[in-house]
Backbone:
């Protein structure tokens, strides 16, 4: 139902998650070799391989057993794993009443295997040449992000706060919103806690080798005893049972003789056979130390990735290096106020481009010469016309808006709505835009004008907003604390409200069925929105709406009177809570980055008859709960439950019409085979379940597994009803349902859809086949159909 998606509150775009932004940013990086006119030469690299014994040993006996060796789940290695699991809480300092440490993060991205000879006549770019962390390969650094922070735990680990003390960001991240780039990189390369049951990397869950279900995913072996940083350790090796499942292979170095199973070092990688897109190699290394009380502290963490977007194109290197120190089990006196501050992330000083004292101190190891030069990289690249214009084009594709200058005060867009078509308007032409903080950091405006060549009507929208907090560039930046006034006149497509994209998106112009069920709506709305740093947000508003009848949707009551329009005035409030949510901020929406956070929403709207010439009373309540459930390497389930009820008597245009998706694209929170205004409801409950298998089935089928396909199963359930209070057959004062709408009233049987799909086709495409399971004999409905989607996913 359209009203459950609250304006100005974080919107979720399932098909346009963070992965679209990552794909475009990676594409920018991949274009850099063209910008510097690298020679496209295929190189033949000769590799000499030698195997050396670390230690000579005399073999006393050699036994050869015929047949396949049987692995036992109860062997010395698995018993050692159980010992580590049993002692992990005892050694966890986060469970203390207070625990804190300082952290330094450095993230880099570079173009692999670039040498001075490749740069040719571009000697100024030689300053950015560097080597990979292992020193074996050369690369051209294109991005550097640094951050120093103090992490505070309290209440036995239940409350975690990260106080940012200094940041830098240089390189290609300057092309986009630096904050968005940081959010994306931090989510893709999350801090790894090997003691968790699951490890989240590249937006996927990998079962930890220390998972309570580790025996389901791994085999364990004791392979050696050796010195690690002067300490005698047992080398415990683990490898995945199915090399195509999301998993790791590597070693845990356990201190010999330690009764708690203290791990001194972790080294592991993702097998190349894993069904993971674009990543050819991922290596993780961690070091730990133990204090006098037996508590363990992670002192270093390093992740390295070798990325290839398309075989045969430029390869990328990405890495995150973290250092931890200054561990304490006392309250940090210098940060006492942070313990009481709302929200998990706290900024001190400038939000970006700030060399804080802690950052300078914790950097410790001097930056490489290439990293020290990164602040001038974009200036050097923009000297080349190819890169200059490619950057502008890609920024438009990513943001959807065209800037009007270097310090743009007004951005045109969104560009995907400039031209579209529908049966009522014919060709729809639209021009709009938004002001930026370069004009005013507190006052903003946005709007559009549109014209239909068939209905020959002008439509428009204008909005002015005052933000009580200064913004860096646009008004939607988190957290929002603003008051806004909106006035608009446009089509209102009854029963067809796209919640996560613009209704006049050009890609939605192609539809499976002609739809003329629309009115012309005038709306004036005054709204206040407040977001808190703990992701709790509120919105209150008052609005006046006038709905104009059309010859497709006339307003004719039971007495035969033809009413040209009706008015209603309401006040409303909504609340949204999503603890721990992170998102990419755009000018008109937000794209959720991590899907671990549940989302709870509630809306109430009320308006008495007679106020401001209102023809009807309105009283409506809606609620929704969204949650993702992970099954480790076996994929995950997205569950959405919604419900709503109208307590008053309303005209048919105000009923809770289910959202019908008439396009051939996959749209969330809509029904692919439902027609607009098919079921009239003043109360409903719905449930959407989507299982993403991540190859749980296809990874086990010979030949098919080479395609790295992923399975999707989706089930949608909707039940609702129409009370006599809102049924025109029982209430003569209500407007009759239009005959051409073919409205039905749902019986005791719910409406249900089932779809089975293939995801990860060529790494970006999704194809679903959808079946309608109930109400198959209603005229003009489709029983099944094919739907497509495009999304970028690791």
Residues:
């Amino acid at each position: 139902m359209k009203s459950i998606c609250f304006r100005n509150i974080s919107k979720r775009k399932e098909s346009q998650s963070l992965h679209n932004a990552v794909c475009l940013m990676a594409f920018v990086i991949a274009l850099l070799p063209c910008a510097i006119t690298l020679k496209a030469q295929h190189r033949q690299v000769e590799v000499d391989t030698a195997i050396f014994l670390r230690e000579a040993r005399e073999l006393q006996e050699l036994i050869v057993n015929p047949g396949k060796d049987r692995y036992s789940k109860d062997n010395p290695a698995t018993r050692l794993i159980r010992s580590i699991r049993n002692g992990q809480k005892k050694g966890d300092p986060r469970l203390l009443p207070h625990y804190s440490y300082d952290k330094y993060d450095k993230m880099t991205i570079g173009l692999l295997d670039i040498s001075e000879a490749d740069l040719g006549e571009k000697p100024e770019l030689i300053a950015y040449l560097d080597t990979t962390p292992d020193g074996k390969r050369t690369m051209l650094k294109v991005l550097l992000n640094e951050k120093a922070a103090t992490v505070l735990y309290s209440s036995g680990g239940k409350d975690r706060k990260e106080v940012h003390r200094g940041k830098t960001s240089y390189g290609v991240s300057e092309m986009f919103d630096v904050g968005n780039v940081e959010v994306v990189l931090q989510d893709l390369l999350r801090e790894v806690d090997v003691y968790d049951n699951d490890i989240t990397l590249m937006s996927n869950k990998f079962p930890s080798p220390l998972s309570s279900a580790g025996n389901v995913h791994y085999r364990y072996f004791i392979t050696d005893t050796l010195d690690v940083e002067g300490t005698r350790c047992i080398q415990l090796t683990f490898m995945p049972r199915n090399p195509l499942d999301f998993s790791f292979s590597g070693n845990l170095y356990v201190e010999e003789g330690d009764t708690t199973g203290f791990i001194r070092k972790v080294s592991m990688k993702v097998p190349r056979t894993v069904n993971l897109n674009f990543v050819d190699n991922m290596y993780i290394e961690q070091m730990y130390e133990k204090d006098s009380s037996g508590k363990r502290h992670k002192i270093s963490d390093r992740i390295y990735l070798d990325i290839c977007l398309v075989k045969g194109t430029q390869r990328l290197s990405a890495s995150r290096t973290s250092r931890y120190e200054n561990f304490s089990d006392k309250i940090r006196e210098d940060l006492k106020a942070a313990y009481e501050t709302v929200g998990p992330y706290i900024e001190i000083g400038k939000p970006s481009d700030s060399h804080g004292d802690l950052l300078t101190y914790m950097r410790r190891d001097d930056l490489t010469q290439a990293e020290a030069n990164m602040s001038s990289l974009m200036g050097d690249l923009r000297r080349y016309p190819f890169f200059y214009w490619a950057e502008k084009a890609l920024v438009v594709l990513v943001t959807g808006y065209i800037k009007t200058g270097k310090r743009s005060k007004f951005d045109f867009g969104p560009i995907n709505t400039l031209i579209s078509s529908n049966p009522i308007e014919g060709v729809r032409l639209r021009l709009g835009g938004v002001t930026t903080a370069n004009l005013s950091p507190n006052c903003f405006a946005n709007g559009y004008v549109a014209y239909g060549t068939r209905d020959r009507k002008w439509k428009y929208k204008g909005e002015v907003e005052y933000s009580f907090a200064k913004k860096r560039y646009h008004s939607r930046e988190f957290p929002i604390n603003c008051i806004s006034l909106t006035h608009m006149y446009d089509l209102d497509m009854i029963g067809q409200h796209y919640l996560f994209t613009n209704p006049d998106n050009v890609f939605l112009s192609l539809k499976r069925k002609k739809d003329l069920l629309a009115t012309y709506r005038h709306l004036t709305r005054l709204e206040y929105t407040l977001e808190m740093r703990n992701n709790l947000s509120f919105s209150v508003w008052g609005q006046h709406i006038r709905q104009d009848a059309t010859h497709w949707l006339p307003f004719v009551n039971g007495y035969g009177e033809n009413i040209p329009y009706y008015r209603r005035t309401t006040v409303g409030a909504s609340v949204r809570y999503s603890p721990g949510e992170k998102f990419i901020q755009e000018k008109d929406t937000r794209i959720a980055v991590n899907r671990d956070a549940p989302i709870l929403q509630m809306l109430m709207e009320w308006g008495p008859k007679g106020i401001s010439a209102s023809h009807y009373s309105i009283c409506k309540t809606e609620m929704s709960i969204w949650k993702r459930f992970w099954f480790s390497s076996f994929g995950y389930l997205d569950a959405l439950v919604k419900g709503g009820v109208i307590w008053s008597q309303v005209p048919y245009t105000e009923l809770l019409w289910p959202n019908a998706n008439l396009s051939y694209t996959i749209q969330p929170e809509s029904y692919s085979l439902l027609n607009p205004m098919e079921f009239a409801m003043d109360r409903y409950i719905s449930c959407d379940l989507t299982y993403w298998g991540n190859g749980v089935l296809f990874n086990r089928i010979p030949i098919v597994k080479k395609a790295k396909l992923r399975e999707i199963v989706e089930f949608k359930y909707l039940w609702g009803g129409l009370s006599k209070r809102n049924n025109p057959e029982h209430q003569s004062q209500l407007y009759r349902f239009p005959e051409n709408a073919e409205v039905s009233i749902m019986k005791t049987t719910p409406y249900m859809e089932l779809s089975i799909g293939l995801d990860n086709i060529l790494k970006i495409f999704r194809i679903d086949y959808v079946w309608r399971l109930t109400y198959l004999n209603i005229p003009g409905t489709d029983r099944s159909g094919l739907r497509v989607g495009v999304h970028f996913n690791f």
About this structure: The chain has a mean pLDDT of 85. The longest strand covers residues 138-154. The CA atoms of residues 77 and 221 lie 5 Å apart. The radius of gyration is 29 Å.
